[in-house]
Structure formats: structure tokens, C-alpha cells
Amino acid sequence: MVVSSRAVVAVGLALAGVGALSLRATAEPPDTSVRKTSASASQSAAAAKPAAPVPATFGTVDIEAVFKAYDKVKTQQEEFKAAALAKHNELAKIQAEAQEELGKLQKLTPNTADAKKIEDRVTELKAKLDAGREQAQRDFAVRESEMLATLYKEVQDMVAAIAKHYGYTYIVQVSNEPISGSNPNSVMAAMAKTVVYADSRNDITKLVVHHLNNRYKAAGGATPKAAAPTQAAGSAATPSGN
Between residues 129 and 26, which one has the greater pLDDT? Predict the structure, then answer.
């Protein structure tokens, strides 16, 4: 098929028109709404930029020493020991009764009705003793775990309050226990510490103990039997956690 010259000219004119439209579209300025959207996005990104971190300031605390000197810990330990002793005595009575029944059994003729009765009683007491012992172990394990969790949370909250009060951004746990050459365990424990040196002027252990005991006493907490007076180091100002 032969394409006429008119058709070629018509197509050429059409293509020329499309090219002109393309050039005109390119020459026109971009849509202002697009510029506004881009500007808004930039402003939002700038507004969402997080603040620069504050300079780090470190303090230290000996958690083990806090637990040893916190009166509430001493009181709850005494209560825990008393409850454990009461349970021990309860189980001891069951064991004593079983021993007594075994003594009676030794005096009887085997396989008699009386001997069978005592054997059944011994079996019953033994099962009761085993069940009681296992239940006590579970109960006291849970009780101890809950007690320690509550006490640690109180210590942690007080550490945070004192840190904020004095402007510390970090409180690092340390141990102030002395190292003894005659005690290899103390040497190995010291070598395993993350913190090798800490200025004692930034240690808040005594402050934590002081404010914890003050708050515990103000709340009507019981005085432990072997309680010793505690003194705060440094400023006596009261943090918000007290």
C-alpha cells in the first residue's frame, strides 16, 4: 500500500502539534500546591527531629549494701524465717507421729489386724509429710520471690528519685565489699566487675538507705530486732521519692 503525500504531511503536522504541546508543558512553572506540600513535609521533618541528648553524669550504688541496711528487708526476713520455722515445726509433728507409730508397729506381730492398721496410718502420715514438704517449698519459693521483687522495686524507685534530685543521668551498680587476699572468691568477684574505679563522692548508697528507712518508719513499719541506726552521707535534702 502506498501512503499518499497528504497523509504523510498530516501525520507530520500532528506530531509537530504534540511536540509543541510538550514544549509548552515543560516551559510552564510547576504547580504551587506541589511546592507547598514539599515545604510542609520539610517543616514536619524538622519538627519531628528528636532533641539532643543531655550530657551523661554517673553515680554509683551498692544494692547489696542497701538490702543489708534497709530495715524493711530485715523485718520481712524475720517474718519469713518465723513462718518457715512454724511450717517446719508443723511438719516435724507429723514426722514425730509417724516415728511413734513405727515404734508401735515393731512391737506387734506382723500381718495382724492391729499391725495392718498401724501400717496404713504410717503410710498416710508419710504421704501427708511428703505433700506438706513439697507444698511448703513451692509456697516459700514464691513468697520469697515476690518479697524480693517488691523490695527491689522500692530500692529502684528510691535510687531513681535520688538520681533525679541530684542530677545524675545514670546510676551504676557497684560493690563496696573489700577485697581479701585470703578469700579467693572476693578477688575473682572483684576482677569480674564492670566498674573498676568509681569516685566515692558520687556513691548514693547511704542516701538510699537513709531515705528508705525514713519512709518505712514514717509509714509505721515495724522495727527489726537487730536494727542499727543509719546515717546519710552528703546532703540531707529529701528527694521526691521519700
Answer: 129
